Amino acid sequence: MAKLDKTDVGILSALQDNAKLNVKELSDLLHISKTPLYERIKRLENEGIIKRYVALVDNKKVGLPLVVFCNISLAVHDDEHIKRFQEEIRNIEEIVECYSTGGMYDFLIKVVLKDLDHYNQFAFEKLTKVQGIVKMQSSFVLGEIKNVTALNIPYQ
Questions:
Q1: In which residue ranges of the chain is pLDDT below 50?
Q2: Does the keyword DNA-binding apply (predicted)?
């Protein structure tokens, strides 16, 4: 775990809120001169704390309103089968997130699609073709209660 001070947390919080802030705007906001601020940002990037900068797109406004969470169990749990499953999942564009989980299922995937017809097509033409899946349970999102991307970062 990286050791972050109050300034690092301030930088990360500001950039999580608006990644388009330039160094001058960030400098004014945090009351830090530009050169040390730039060096801190570079360090946070180089250490992998800042992984990348992205635009968050509203799925509904781009014609992809259906969000489905699928719990998946694999038949075999050795390294070879798990790696093959992960690689196949990475190559399916409708899957936007995938997590290895403990408990009743092995993986949780998040799928974003146009409608139920497209989900049916996705499930039968893509997901069922992934080797090793023995069980799947789908839950359809009816409404979004909370969706944040910013972490509440503690500093030491």
A1: none
A2: yes
